[in-house]
Amino acid sequence: MRSTSIGTRSSSAQTQDRFDPFCDRRCRDIRNHLCISFVEGLERMNPLVFKKEIEKWRAKDLSAVHMEYIDDRERLYFQVFDRIRKNSIDDAITRALICWNEGLFFEVHQILEDLWDTAIGERREAIKGLIQAAGVYVHLEAGRGEAARKLGRRAAERLNRLRHCFPFLSNLDELLERLESADPNPPTLIPSCAISPG
């Protein structure tokens, strides 16, 4: 599992030397296209889907910051993909937890959003809470601390109110504490059932 500490940066002058999809269109396009291809690759259980997208971006004239992001995503995507395939995991929630624990928060958001689209009632609201939780760390990665704090409070309130919807999560209270304080160190989410480490 990836040990992730997310720093909070606020200076817009730093956008040139870091990957910032909130302020840089190219970063946003790279992140979004890679994420969509990764989720599609998981759905089809075919890593060539995201590998082709990665290679398409590598063929472009990109900065070192962009290439570093792409290299990191490729490494993490294959690591997560192999773990999911090894354990024959087809459940979207479990896939999202694995992605969370590797620091793939935008990908968690995408996986859960697809599930949220078809959910109803309390399940839909509970999934929204997990999407918001992932969003907290997407904001923190981009140095958007205030947005992360606001979203963290809303996510924690929703998840706490719907805690009965999360029997699959062993450490919900730890997640709630970290969200409420916008702690830059996301907790490792511990599923109630065992998953092989990969």
Describe this structure in words.
- The chain has 198 residues and is an all-alpha fold.
- It folds into 2 domains: 65 residues, no CATH class; 93 residues, no CATH class.
- The protein is 62% helix and 0% strand.
- It is built from 8 helices and no strands.
- The chain is globular and about 50 Å long.
- The termini are close together.
- 37% of the residues are buried.
- The N terminus is likely disordered.
Mean pLDDT: 91
Beta-strand proportion:
under 5%
Total of helices: 8
Q: Choose one word for the global shape.
A: globular
Helix content: 55-70%
Rg, rounded, reads: 16 Å
Global structural class: mainly alpha
Question: Quaternary arrangement of the chains shown?
Answer: single chain
Low-confidence stretches are 1-5, 7-15
What distance separates the N and C termini? 9 Å
Q: How many β strands by DSSP?
A: 0
Element-level helix/strand string: HHHHHHHH
The major pleated sheet works out as: none
Tell me the domain tally: 2
Quick structural overview:
About 60% of the residues lie in helices and about 0% in strands. It contains 8 helices and no strands.
Topology diagram in text:
Layout: H1 25-44, H2 48-58, H3 64-86, H4 92-101, H5 105-116, H6 121-141, H7 145-161, H8 172-180
Helix pairs in contact: 1-2, 1-3, 1-5, 2-3, 4-5, 5-6, 6-7, 7-8
